[in-house]
Amino acid sequence: MTISSLVDRFGVSVSILRKATDTKDSSGGRVETWARSSTLTGFLQVRANADTVAGGAERSTQTATIYFQGKPTIRVRDRISYGSTIYEVSSVRVPDERPLSDALCYTIVEATEVFG
Q: Do residues 30 and 24 lie in contact, with contact meaning Cβ atoms separated by under 8 Å?
């Protein structure tokens, strides 16, 4: 099966979130807001679960690979929202840098679940 047929058959709707603001609050803590940049259809595969410690608490974190047709505008550190799960993009690549008009052109996004 090609990536295109996987996206057509098993694709899910995801929202691409881009950082809208990045400020500090009165106590010096970081405050970020995110705004929807676009909504795309992609083939999402959860690759692994890992137990990590963040803020003194153990959390089960997912990593995922998401395949999109063509070359959508997705950047490292954008966020992807799927259902109640938010992933932060850690890498974006286009195999062999295929041209956008190529029927086999697709984009692979690696992402890790974030909390908060």
A: yes
